[in-house]
């Protein structure tokens, strides 16, 4: 089975976000594989263990993103492709990423039976790249899956629908995106990391791909980047219960303006 | 000058950090109370490959440089020192002798199983009447045909309760003093090998040290490690190279204590403001950070020297001594900053305070390190003429 995983390197979930000149400051920040993409990697390796075949991990990002690929290879992925699109600067959005991924799969002639992605990246949280990529490749896709079974050509998944489960059947080739609960990602073993150093990694730049820059630039524009307002301390009402209730209604109506 | 770690070492470090934080730290109090590391944690450490960091790749390990090992030791120092000690003793003095001095047959027999953690390693030098004066060991080994017959006893042997492979020092020629000592690889199930009671200790709970008794213990001649008569010098070499690793473990514990202390000092309010705003507290934190920074530089420099093949007798003694003293100073300040909470057994700080104490004693006391440094100074001075 040929398995592709698209992953993104993101801030460690424990990092504090700080802004500098209207941009997110990356200095001294620890980066990890986007946690949802980590589920995708784990599932890919499980499929390989079950059916044999090869797992290829693809990422788009700066040089540091190589570490995310190496970690995935240490978990068991066989090879990696990293595409540097820094030439585009900030002119990048989900539309761009999906186009570049599709072009990379074509350029590298990557055969696939299944493509796995995280359902969203924890940094921008758009949850668009997987579905967009499936559309460009003209294959079916199912998002937010929590269980995956493959039998011959038949694919059966549990899909998380706002806390409920939908069971969906489809066929290979397919693209699925991973939701929390799909699996428990393994620790990459330390010998695995040393071996991952020697696994094949292809580096591509925009020029290597058959793409028209005009067509892939972002269709959205970022106007401003700002942090959410600081959470205010709660208010504790006092006095007789009846008075407290009145006060609460008054505050909800006039201060919070929610009723 | 280059002060950065290679990329793959950074990755290893990160994985070990996550493992320590997610799997070991949550059970640290349990380890302390039960005096036992949960089997699940040990199994996970085996799967991760932690037991093989000092063993070459061709024997199933990681074949890490000393710098690489120190990077990992620093991370495993950031949790319960019983766990740190299990891994540290196994990957240090428990295996390094076989890696450096073993014959091809010995390496093939022992290292793969030690790399996977199936066989735990231990180092047996100390005896009731031979601690700092290691050359005074009384355990004897007498050759009879194709075996040696070993008689005597050892004590305070780290990992002995669970270890399978012991590097044992015994006297083969009493007339020759230190040059009459030989090292042997001894397996737990060799006839005449008896593991005595587990010592009760002030700290390092979950790490089990025992007495060993050898009653006509039979060891095949092919299990001599290195050459006959070189055991004492082998032991010194094994201990010397282990010293940077020990310092790195202490470094990790110090960093843990500093991080906890800063966090606590920012949260704890007295006299209407966080205690970190009291200069007395802030200065304690500054001193801790200063000590830690100096230790970090020293540790990685000595590790780098080991990797370059530079002789580090003096520097290894320095880093072992400094690492132990810094750990004790930092632990003392951490308790002070935490106040009553620092003394409470419900909280991890006092545990580090107790665990720190042994570092000035084991693998060469602080006094012995000063002797080594002093002797080297004289040698260097005389050389210069």
From TrEMBL, chain A:
It comes from the Bacteria. InterPro entries: ET-Flavoprotein_bsu_CS (IPR000049), ETF_a/b_N (IPR014730), ETF_b (IPR012255), ETF_beta_N (IPR033948), Rossmann-like_a/b/a_fold (IPR014729). This is Electron transfer flavoprotein subunit beta. The keyword Glycosyltransferase does not apply. Keywords: Electron transport, Transport. Residues 21-213 form the Electron transfer flavoprotein alpha/beta-subunit N-terminal domain. Its cofactor is AMP. Belongs to the ETF beta-subunit/FixA family. It holds the Pfam family ETF. The electron transfer flavoprotein serves as a specific electron acceptor for other dehydrogenases. It transfers the electrons to the main respiratory chain via ETF-ubiquinone oxidoreductase (ETF dehydrogenase). Transmembrane segments: none annotated. Heterodimer of an alpha and a beta subunit. It comes from Thermoflavimicrobium dichotomicum. GO terms for cellular component: cytosol. One of its GO terms (molecular function) is electron transfer activity. CDD domains: ETF_beta (cd01714). The keyword Cytoplasm does not apply. One of its GO terms (biological process) is carboxylic acid catabolic process.
TrEMBL record, chain B:
Residues 229-377 form the Acyl-CoA dehydrogenase/oxidase C-terminal domain. The keyword Flavoprotein applies. Residues 122-216 form the Acyl-CoA oxidase/dehydrogenase middle domain. The keyword Flavoprotein applies. Pathway: Amino-acid degradation; L-valine degradation. PROSITE patterns: ACYL_COA_DH_2. GO terms for biological process: branched-chain amino acid catabolic process. SUPFAM superfamilies: Acyl-CoA dehydrogenase C-terminal domain-like, Acyl-CoA dehydrogenase NM domain-like. One of its GO terms (molecular function) is flavin adenine dinucleotide binding. Its cofactor is FAD. Residues 8-118 form the Acyl-CoA dehydrogenase/oxidase N-terminal domain. It holds the Pfam family Acyl-CoA_dh_M. Keywords: Branched-chain amino acid catabolism, FAD, Flavoprotein, Oxidoreductase. InterPro entries: Acyl-CoA_DH_CS (IPR006089), Acyl-CoA_Oxase/DH_mid-dom (IPR006091), Acyl-CoA_Oxase/DH_mid-dom_sf (IPR046373), AcylCo_DH-like_C (IPR036250), AcylCo_DH/oxidase_C (IPR009075), AcylCoA_DH/ox_N (IPR013786), AcylCoA_DH/ox_N_sf (IPR037069), AcylCoA_DH/oxidase_NM_dom_sf (IPR009100). Belongs to the acyl-CoA dehydrogenase family. PANTHER family: ACYL-COA DEHYDROGENASE, ISOVALERYL-COA DEHYDROGENASE, MITOCHONDRIAL-RELATED. This is Acyl-CoA dehydrogenase.
């Amino acid at each position: 089975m040929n398995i592709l995983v698209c992953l993104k390197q993101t801030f460690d979930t424990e990092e504090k976000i700080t802004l500098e000149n209207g941009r997110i400051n990356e200095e001294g920040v620890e980066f990890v594989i986007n946690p949802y993409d980590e589920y995708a990697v784990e599932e890919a390796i499980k499929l390989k263990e079950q059916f044999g075949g090869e797992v290829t991990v693809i990422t788009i990002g700066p040089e540091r993103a190589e570490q995310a690929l190496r970690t995935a290879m240490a978990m068991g992925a066989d090879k990696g492709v990293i595409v540097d699109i820094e030439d585009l600067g900030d002119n990048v959005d989900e539309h761009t990423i999906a186009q570049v991924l599709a072009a990379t799969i074509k350029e590298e002639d990557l055969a696939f039976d299944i493509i796995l992605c995280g359902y969203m990246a924890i940094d921008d949280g758009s949850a668009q790249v997987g579905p967009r990529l499936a559309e460009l490749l003209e294959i079916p896709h199912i998002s937010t899956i929590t269980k995956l079974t493959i039998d011959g050509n038949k694919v059966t998944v549990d899909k998380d629908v706002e806390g409920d489960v939908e069971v969906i059947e489809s066929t290979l080739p397919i693209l699925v995106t991973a939701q929390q609960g799909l699996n428990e990602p393994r620790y990459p073993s330390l010998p695995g990391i040393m071996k991952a150093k020697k696994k094949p990694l292809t580096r591509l730049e925009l020029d290597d791909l058959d793409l028209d820059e005009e067509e892939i630039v972002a269709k959205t524009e970022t106007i401003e980047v700002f942090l959410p307002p600081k959470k205010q301390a709660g208010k504790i009402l006092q006095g007789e219960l009846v008075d407290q209730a009145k006060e609460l209604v008054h505050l909800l109506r006039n201060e919070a303006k929610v009723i | 000058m280059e002060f950065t770690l290679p990329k793959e070492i950074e990755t290893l470090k990160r994985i070990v950090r996550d493992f320590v934080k997610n799997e070991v730290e949550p059970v640290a109090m349990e380890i302390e109370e039960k005096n036992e590391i949960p089997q699940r944690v040990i199994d996970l450490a085996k799967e991760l490959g932690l037991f093989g960091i000092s063993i070459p790749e061709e024997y199933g390990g990681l074949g890490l440089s000393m710098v690489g090992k120190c990077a990992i030791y620093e991370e495993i120092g950031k949790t319960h020192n019983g766990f740190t000690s299990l891994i540290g003793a196994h990957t240090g003095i428990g295996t390094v002798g076989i890696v450096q001095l073993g014959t091809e047959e010995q390496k093939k027999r022992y290292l793969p199983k030690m790399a996977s953690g199936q066989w735990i390693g231990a180092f047996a030098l100390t005896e009731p009447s031979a601690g700092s004066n290691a050359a005074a060991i009384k355990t004897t080994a007498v050759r009879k045909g194709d075996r040696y017959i070993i008689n005597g006893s050892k004590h305070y042997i780290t990992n002995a309760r669970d270890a399978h492979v012991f590097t044992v020092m015994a006297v083969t020629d009493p007339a020759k003093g230190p040059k009459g000592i030989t090292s042997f690889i001894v397996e737990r199930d060799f006839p005449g090998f008896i593991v005595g009671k587990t010592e009760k200790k002030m700290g390092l709970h979950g790490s089990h040290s025992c007495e060993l008794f050898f009653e006509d213990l039979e060891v095949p001649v092919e299990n001599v490690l290195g050459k006959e008569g070189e055991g004492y010098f082998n032991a010194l070499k094994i201990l010397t190279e282990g010293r940077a690793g020990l310092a790195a473990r202490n470094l990790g514990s110090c960093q843990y204590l500093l991080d906890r202390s800063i966090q606590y000092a920012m949260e704890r309010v007295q006299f209407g403001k966080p205690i970190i705003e009291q200069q007395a507290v802030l200065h304690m934190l500054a001193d801790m950070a200063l000590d830690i920074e100096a230790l970090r530089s020293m540790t990685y420099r000595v590790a780098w020297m080991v990797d370059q093949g530079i002789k580090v007798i003096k520097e290894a003694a320095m880093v072992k001594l400094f690492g132990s003293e810094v750990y004790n100073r930092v632990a003392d300040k951490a308790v002070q900053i935490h106040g009553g909470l620092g003394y409470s057994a419900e909280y991890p700080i006092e545990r580090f305070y107790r665990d720190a104490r042994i570092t000035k004693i084991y693998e060469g006391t602080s006094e012995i390190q000063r002797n080594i440094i002093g002797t080297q100074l004289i040698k260097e001075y005389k050389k210069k003429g």
